Structures are given as C-alpha cells and as structure tokens.
C-alpha cells in the first residue's frame, strides 16, 4: 500500500514537462464556461481503480476539461462516459457514470492508467513528454501483482505499452494495431488487446460503436483466469 501511495504522490507532484505544466495550469485558471464554478484539479492525474486488478486499461492522457478538471482518469468528459458505461455493462464498474472524484464509482478487477498524466495541448503529447511520463506506467505494471491482461485504448497506448515491456528486456516482435486485435505476448507476460480510443472523434463518427467496445470487454472477461 505504501508503494502505491508514494507513486501517486510522485505523479501528482511531477513537473518534468514545462509545456504541459503551463498548459494544464492555464486551462485550470481560465476554465470552460460550462465549468466556471469548478475548482479544476490542474495537476498530473494518477491511476484509478482496483489495485488488485487482473486487467489494466491504458489510455492516452487526461482531457483538458475532463480528468484535468476532476482529478480522476476518464472522468468528466465524453470519452469517460463511453468507457464507464461499457465497463459497467461488462461488470467491471458498480455504476455507469463518472462525474467527479466523490461520486461513488468503484472498479472491480480493473485499474485505469494512461501514457501521459498531464492534459496536452490538442491532445497531442510530444515524444519527449511521453518518455518523461512512461516510468509511472512502468511502475504501475510492476505493482499490479495480479495482472493478467492489458487493454490499450488507441495506437499511442498500444505502442507505448509494448515499449515498456521491451525496455524491461522482453523480446516482443513488431505487432500491428487494430481494433479488437489480441496478442499473447509470451510466458509470464500479460495478454494484450487493442481498441480504438473512446474519443468523441471515434464514437460520434461511428468508428467505435458501443457494440464494438463491448466486444473488447467481453473478450477480456473470457481471457481472465483462463
């Protein structure tokens, strides 16, 4: 437990990337009109969920007016609404909504993290910013002692999850990203499922439908404990 608390504090206090520090704090000061009465979180966002989880979900980064506002992964924006509805349908979440950090949401068997912990301008972190942040995800991978599988939401999450595993000395060949594609990474490694990111750009255009997303979590359920 102490290691988790130490990691969470390290994430929250991080100021490694000047561009991201300036942006997240500017957004928190200026706020969106719809949230002008909110006190924005405006700091790096730690992971969220069940620390005994068998399944790790990896996203890209906090949304400027989502997790950067609420302080909890995938909370307070359209991506989070789509994700938590699916997790609730699959039995991984006790409720389908995720509005703010004190709303009673609890996850069972799932831990949610991201490649980057600060909201990036235009949702596009720079390569060096990703490199600065990956050690936090790497640490979570080590702390999740019951981990069996990973769902990577989007190509950046997919590529950088594999990057961490390779950097840890695991020989993994080049793998192609595609929605619903799954990989057995080898002995003593978690399996990996790729998914389109539940961004509004994907969900509102029909590139990612609820049925497509549900299939990912249903397959994850089938693979757990197999």
Q: Main beta sheet, described?
A: 6 strands, mixed
Using the coordinates above, name the CATH class.
Alpha Beta
Could you give the order of strands across the largest sheet? 1-3-2-4-6-5
Q: Helicity level, as a percent range?
A: 25-40%
What does this entry look like structurally?
There is one protein chain. The protein is an alpha/beta fold. The protein is built from eight helices and six strands, in the order H-H-E-E-H-H-E-H-E-H-E-E-H-H. The radius of gyration is 16 Å and the shape is globular. The chain has a six-stranded mixed β-sheet with strand order 1-3-2-4-6-5, with helices on both faces. The chain is 39% helix and 11% strand. Helix 1 (2-13) runs antiparallel to helix 5, helix 4 (78-89) packs across helix 8 (210-223) and helix 5 crosses helix 6.
Keywords for this entry:
single chain, 226 residues, alpha/beta, Uracil-DNA Glycosylase, subunit E, 39% helix
């Amino acid at each position: 437990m102490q290691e988790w608390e130490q990691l969470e504090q390290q994430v929250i206090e991080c100021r490694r990337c000047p561009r991201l520090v300036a942006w997240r704090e500017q957004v928190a000061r200026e706020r969106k009109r719809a949230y002008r009465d909110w006190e924005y979180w405006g700091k790096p966002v730690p992971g969220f969920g069940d620390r005994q989880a068998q399944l790790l979900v990896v996203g890209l980064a906090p949304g400027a007016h989502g997790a950067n506002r609420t302080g909890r992964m995938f909370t307070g924006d359209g991506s989070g609404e789509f994700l938590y509805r699916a997790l609730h349908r699959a039995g991984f979440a006790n409720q389908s909504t995720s509005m703010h950090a004190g709303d009673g949401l609890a996850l069972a068997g799932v831990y949610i993290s991201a490649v980057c912990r600060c909201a990036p301008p235009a949702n596009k972190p720079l390569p060096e910013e990703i490199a600065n942040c990956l050690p936090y995800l790497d640490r979570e991978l080590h702390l999740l002692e019951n981990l069996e599988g990973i769902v990577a939401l989007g190509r950046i999450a997919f590529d950088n999850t594999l990057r961490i595993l390779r950097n840890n000395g695991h020989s993994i060949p080049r793998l192609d990203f595609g929605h619903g594609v799954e990989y057995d990474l080898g002995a003593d490694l978690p399996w990996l499922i790729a998914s389109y990111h539940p961004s509004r750009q994907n969900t509102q255009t029909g590139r990612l439908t609820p049925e497509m997303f549900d299939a990912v979590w249903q397959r994850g359920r089938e693979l757990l404990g197999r």
